[in-house]
Amino acid sequence: MLDGGQCGGNMSLRFLDTNNNPLPEIYVLSMFAGQVGQPIPVRFECRDGYFLFAVAPAGVTVEGRADGDTAWIDLLTDPIDLSPFAPEVSDFELRLTPEAAFNDDIQFRISETVGQMVYNGNGDLVKNGNNQYVLR
Amino acid sequence: MSFVITGFALPEPITTGEEATFTIRLTAYEARATRNVQEIIPRLTVYGGRLPEEGEEIRIRACSWQKAEGATGIDCSFTLADVNDREFITKSTSLTFEIGLKENGTTTYKTIASLNKLSQVAFQIAGNTFSFQTVSGVTDKLNASPAVPLMIYDPDKVPFNADEIEQLQDTEGREYEIEAIAVTGLTIYDLFQEIFVNRCGFADYWTNIPNFAVPQLSVDITETYADALNQWIEPFSAPGSDGPLLTETDDVVSIHDTSLLIPADFPTPRDLTVWGCSEAAISAAYSDVEAAKMFYSIPSTFDYTTNLMETSNLPIGDGLWRFSFTNTLEFRSFAQPLIVMDKQLQAVWEYTYRDSLANPVTQEQVTNFFDRYARLRSTLTDRWALLPDETSAPAFIGTDPTEHEEQQFTYAQHPNSLGRQYQQSITKSLTGRIMVDANNTYRGDPFRQNLRLAHWAGNAEEGFTIADGPLRNYQETVSPGRNGQVQRRITDYDMVRDLPMSQRREAQVGDVSLNGNNTITRDLIVTEDGSEFTGGKVVQFSVGPIPLDISIPLVRRKLVRLRETRASASLNIIGFDPTIEAGITFAASDLEEQIEGNFICTAFSGSAEMTREGMQCSMAVSAVEI
Question: What is the domain-level CATH number for residue A81?
Answer without folding.
Answer: 2.60.40
